[in-house]
């Protein structure tokens, strides 16, 4: 079975309060209104890759492309209606039925610092390890006093403090924190709705597995029926050691870079390669249907679901699309009992979840005519 997390409960995180989702399955489809908390759920699951790495907390799904400071990202973790600055959630692991409670607590402090003191903080925290204080410190700077803010935070797992740190509002430098150890609960791979446009793939894992590679090529015929192969080319990439992936097709004289193909092809390659990368872990797909044409959904989604089952991958996906949800529910009938459709509803004091298995979801939609989103 590919159920690594059997239960998730959230005391408080961003706009979510008092949410509990139990009976999670191999394949979990999360839907609901805007701002109901779908992406927030994915972020908390993503954190399990290293729950005590503050940079994991501050680089969540929604924040990857936001050009805001780490201080602001810290602020955005907390429910704005709560005076307490904290995050608290728990997961139950299926393997040993162990419940892990994870939390982050922070105190906001106001203080005054001289310009020299601020430079010293920036120098100590400089990512390249340079000491810049000697270059810029001066007696004049000592007279310049500014009001600053900082968060002093602690990260907990099962009530044990695993890491402490400080984030100031005037620097983008590396965060000062105690201990460099990691705490990996389960491997997680997160795919954003637009990651395919960046060209970041996980194809090296696929190219090392002949069976999965051939299966992927068959699926990609939905986008190019003449496709012959995908190869990694490192010879002509002058600016990086990263391979350029090229597609050889019968109707082209030479192999063409993957990035010249349409978004549908790139998204399909990204999703399928991510499944292989997530082996024995959790795959998280936010708005998974983006860029995949409806004509190709059945074949692509079926391969993803079957391969997740084969590779011991638990799948969490979000979608606003009624058609995409329907495609996932019906593309692999033999897996419907291993699916959960989780619909989030925001109430004044909490978020609630309706959980249906795949068979119940189809019956609710097709026979009763009820809205699943």
Produce a short descriptive summary.
The chain has 373 residues and is α+β, with helices and mostly antiparallel strands. The protein is built from twelve helices and 16 strands. It has a domain at 51-183.
Structure report:
This protein is α+β, with helices and mostly antiparallel strands. It has a domain at 51-183. Helix content is 28%, strand content 31%. It is built from twelve helices and 16 strands. The chain has helices at residues 38-46, 54-57, 70-75, 115-124, 133-136, 139-143, 203-207, 210-220, 263-277, 294-310, 322-331, 358-366; strands at 5-13, 16-22, 27-32, 85-93, 99-114, 145-157, 160-168, 176-177, 188-191, 227-233, 244-249, 256-257, 282-285, 314-318, 339-346, 351-357. The chain is globular and about 70 Å long.
Please outline the helices and strands:
Elements: E1 5-13, E2 16-22, E3 27-32, H1 38-46, H2 54-57, H3 70-75, E4 85-93, E5 99-114, H4 115-124, H5 133-136, H6 139-143, E6 145-157, E7 160-168, E8 176-177, E9 188-191, H7 203-207, H8 210-220, E10 227-233, E11 244-249, E12 256-257, H9 263-277, E13 282-285, H10 294-310, E14 314-318, H11 322-331, E15 339-346, E16 351-357, H12 358-366
Parallel strand pairs: 3-14, 3-15, 9-13, 13-14
Antiparallel strand pairs: 1-2, 1-4, 4-5, 5-6, 6-7, 7-8, 10-11, 11-12, 15-16
Helix pairs in contact: 9-10, 10-11
């Amino acid at each position: 079975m590919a159920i690594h997390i059997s239960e998730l409960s959230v005391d408080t995180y961003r706009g979510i309060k008092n949410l509990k989702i139990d009976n999670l399955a191999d394949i979990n489809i999360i839907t609901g209104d805007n701002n109901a908390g779908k992406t927030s759920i994915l972020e908390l699951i993503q954190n399990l890759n290293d729950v005590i790495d503050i940079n994991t907390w501050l680089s969540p799904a929604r924040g990857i492309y936001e050009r805001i400071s780490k201080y602001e990202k810290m602020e955005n973790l907390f429910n704005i209606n709560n005076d307490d600055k904290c995050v608290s959630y728990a997961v139950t692991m299926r393997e040993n039925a162990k419940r892990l409670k994870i939390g982050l607590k922070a105190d906001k402090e106001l203080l005054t610092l001289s310009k020299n003191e601020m430079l010293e903080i920036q120098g100590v925290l400089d990512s390249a390890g340079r000491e810049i204080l000697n270059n810029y410190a001066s007696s004049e700077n000592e007279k310049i006093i500014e009001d600053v803010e900082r968060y002093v935070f602690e990260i907990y797992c099962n009530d044990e403090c695993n890491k402490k740190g400080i984030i100031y509002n005037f620097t983008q430098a590396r965060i000062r924190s105690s201990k460099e150890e990691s705490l990996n609960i389960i491997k997680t791979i997160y795919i954003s709705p637009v990651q395919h446009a960046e060209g970041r793939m996980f194809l090296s894992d696929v190219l090392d597995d002949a069976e999965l590679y051939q299966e992927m090529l068959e699926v990609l015929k939905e986008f190019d029926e003449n496709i012959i192969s995908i190869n990694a080319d490192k010879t002509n990439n002058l600016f990086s050691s990263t391979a350029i992936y090229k597609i050889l097709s019968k109707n082209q004289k030479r192999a063409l870079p993957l990035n010249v193909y349409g978004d549908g092809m790139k998204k399909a390659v990204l999703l399928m390669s991510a499944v292989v990368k997530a082996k024995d872990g959790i795959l998280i797909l936010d708005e998974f249907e983006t860029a995949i044409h409806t004509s190709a959904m059945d074949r692509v989604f079926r391969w993803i679901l079957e391969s997740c089952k084969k590779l011991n991958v638990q799948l969490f996906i979000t979608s606003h699309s009624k058609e995409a949800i329907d495609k996932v529910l019906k593309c692999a009938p033999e897996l419907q009992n291993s699916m959960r459709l989780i619909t989030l509803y925001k109430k004044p004091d909490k978020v609630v979840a309706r959980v249906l298995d795949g068979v119940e979801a189809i019956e609710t939609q097709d026979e009763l005519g009820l809205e699943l989103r």
